[in-house]
Amino acid sequence: MIQPPLTFEELDPLIFCQAWGLTYEEASKYLKIGARTLAAYACQGKVTRRNPSARVRALAAIQHNLWIREGKQPQDSKIL
To answer: Residue 50: which of 63, 37, 67 has the closest Cα?
Structure first.
């Protein structure tokens, strides 16, 4: 039995980057945000850490689902 591919309504942008092997600069083009904003999502400090908005999480999920439908496979599907 073939397992259907995972589709998401929301996907954390950092997991999106890791799964598809994208740099912050590459992912920022798909998510319509700055690379520095993505870097701020990854910060561990309380002062500079930011949380991604629902719009950014939705855009990451939309791009992920689009690539899956096109037959592309993420580089690291274990983290999904």
So the answer is: 37
- Residue pLDDT, tens place only, 61-70: 999 999 999 9
Domain residue extents for the chain = 13-75
Q: pTM of the full predicted structure? A: 0.87
Phi, psi of 63 (to 5 degrees): -65, -40
> Does residue 80 surpass a pLDDT of 90?
no
Q: Do 43 and 51 meet the contact criterion of CB atoms below 8 Å apart?
A: no
Query: What gap in Å lies between CA 45 and CA 55, rounded to an integer?
Result: 23
Q: How far is Cα 72 from Cα 7, in angstroms, rounded to an integer?
A: 13
